[in-house]
Design the sequence.
């Protein structure tokens, strides 16, 4: 008899965004002439940079010609892209990351979800609360349900949890944070690197939103912290940076110095394990997509990508200012595309109120964990005129 | 302490194609003016069909414009592609598969590798010997090392194993087979469907090479067998069909009627589990890639794709005929791009002989399992003139 992985039965059946979609549809059915504006899911709205489009076309052209056709590429990504990433995202900031330590993939959701496969089932996890649901759900699927430390990310710690007294083996960190929009300072990240070294723990650092950082004091990469290259893996994505949510390209940094251990305490380079995992279960990213991604690092591409994040940060500023002016307590939106708002009431009640009175969709904070109750996340990913109109409507009802 | 998944330590360190690459490099270093022809790895050489290139370009264009830009797509794939697949690959052959049962992905290696995540760790597997290494390696990574039935695919059973007397829960079948090139008849597949029904087992049917079938009696899909839609999942790929090895698109069929069971014997639709897995760990395939794939099903695309497989089958015919004429025992190559040759000596010795005397690279059969010893796999994926020259050289030395 084919038996299921019963850990799947422990997953909550209703995923946050499914419930949101359900409520929005119900509202639309009852109000067919609605003018709903969605500031919920963090999906981009602006076209791909012209530099990416040009490179994309030219790579497609190559696939159509005998002399330039490409079959299987390296599972780890093409050297032209890995090299561009190492130089531009790391060497330029003094972070010691080589091209070989970069694994190109089709998405950070896949990588953050798959990475836990490399570890024993009985490790202890630490995740922030509220948290991006994928970190937890993929560990539940793997049977890691009991030994989870939830680190409250709350007003009292500026939404940046300190390392706990307890020992965790695998720590998920995300800065700029989804959902709170909070950023971590160099000193705060240093504490985490120290913690990892003391406990031989591993940090999984999700930097999907780093391109929205404007404050020069805030690190973009965990590898700006000395010693992090021994205890941290970093996830990056072109989804929000360059509008790649529908194009699909991301990467993961696994430094050669990071070790993990067998039950006798013998160390193994994590690079070897991830390389084996990717070589066995993955066949690399579409060649034209990698070419499009590499164009982000050309002078033209860099300018366009900066303009994209500036545009969304402009939206974030409108959202942030409006809520502050109305009198709400607000986090994020300055170095992040997410704005986290203390609603003063139940998250879903506030969601429903905004939906019904302003026809604006946000994301209830409680969907990200217990400590998210009483908050909503508002996303800056939309057209400027829609954001402006949404905020005008919100101003009238709050 | 971050502890590794120690199952990774049970994997053989030297992957078949790594060892081949090593021997080829060594030969090249010693013989710098060699003219090596590779008939080893199954990678395509012909450009993408024009219909795919045109659709690819036009979708890239859409991503560059405000009005047509696409962000996140459905994790399961766009309806336009799922619909085209259901109609053309299944309805047209009387196989009962709906668009909703099709999950578009970036590769069959990923899907066949990831699918085992849905099952309990203590199930019994059945795989053929020789076998595509990914089926076994991904189960070893998941800790399934003891309960594995190896089904010899040998001369005596025409390289198509019958269901065993023992009970297996999860059965990997691949037809046309990699590496042997053998195909399974309707009657042989019916036996397997019966076996699965009797034992509440699940068949994972890998049909990556179905487009090479020319014999009208041979099923292209497991769903041509009545009842298979209750006990089988099917994997398909555009890699070999349409030259997508570097473009990356494939799909998996999970019929709504297929059930798997908890330890109490309660049934759960497998569709729900795979849908949850994909929604949590995957973010869909690049939009332009899906558009390129859908073009395979246009009248122009169908013609071009047929011409592609005809081309490689023409190569296969040359390989097959030559070895038969020399006096070897040969399987495959008529309805498959792989030719499986009984060498009369050790697989690696024959590999080395071909490399050193003819400068032709093949794949040693022993690399696919114990029963592959004494065989080599020759791949038809190359340019016609290279195949011709390789076979002329081989004729001179054998």
Sequence:
């Amino acid at each position: 008899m084919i038996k299921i992985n019963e850990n799947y039965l422990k997953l909550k059946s209703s995923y946050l965004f499914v419930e949101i979609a359900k409520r929005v549809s119900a509202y639309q059915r009852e109000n067919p002439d609605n003018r709903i504006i969605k500031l919920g899911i963090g999906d981009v709205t602006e076209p791909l940079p012209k530099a990416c489009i040009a490179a994309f076309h030219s790579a497609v052209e190559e696939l159509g010609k005998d002399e330039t056709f490409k079959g299987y590429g390296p599972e780890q990504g093409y050297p032209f892209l890995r090299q561009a990433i190492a130089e531009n995202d790391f060497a330029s900031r003094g972070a010691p990351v080589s091209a070989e330590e970069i694994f190109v993939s089709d998405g950070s959701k896949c990588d953050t979800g798959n990475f836990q496969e490399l570890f024993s089932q009985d490790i202890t996890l630490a995740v922030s609360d509220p948290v991006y649901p994928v970190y937890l759900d993929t560990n539940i699927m793997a049977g890691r349900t009991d030994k989870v430390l939830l680190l409250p990310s709350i007003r009292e710690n500026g939404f940046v949890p300190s390392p706990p007294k307890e020992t965790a083996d695998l720590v998920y960190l995300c800065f700029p944070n989804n959902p709170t929009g909070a950023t971590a300072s160099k000193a705060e990240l240093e504490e985490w690197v120290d913690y990892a070294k003391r406990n031989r723990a591993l940090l999984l650092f999700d930097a999907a939103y780093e391109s929205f950082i404007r404050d020069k004091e805030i690190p973009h990469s965990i590898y700006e912290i000395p010693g992090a290259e021994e205890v941290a893996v970093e996830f990056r994505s072109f989804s929000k940076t360059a509008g790649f949510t529908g194009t699909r390209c991301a990467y993961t940094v696994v430094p050669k110095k990071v070790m993990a251990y067998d039950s006798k305490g013998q160390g193994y380079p994590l690079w070897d394990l991830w390389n084996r995992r990717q070589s066995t279960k993955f066949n690399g990213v579409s060649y034209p997509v990698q070419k499009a991604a590499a164009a982000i690092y050309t002078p033209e591409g860099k300018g366009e990508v900066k303009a994209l994040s500036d545009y969304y940060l402009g939206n974030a500023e409108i959202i942030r200012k409006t809520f502050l002016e109305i009198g709400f307590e607000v986090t994020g939106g300055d170095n992040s595309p997410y704005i986290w708002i203390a609603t003063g009431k139940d998250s879903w009640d506030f969601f429903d109120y905004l939906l019904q009175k302003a026809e604006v969709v946000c994301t209830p904070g409680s969907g990200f964990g217990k400590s998210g109750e009483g908050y909503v996340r508002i996303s800056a990913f939309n057209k400027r005129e829609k954001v402006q109109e949404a905020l005008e409507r919100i101003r009238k009802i709050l």
About this structure: The CA atoms of residues 202 and 385 of chain B lie 43 Å apart. Chain B has a mean pLDDT of 97. Chain B touches chain A through 80 residues (CB under 8 Å).
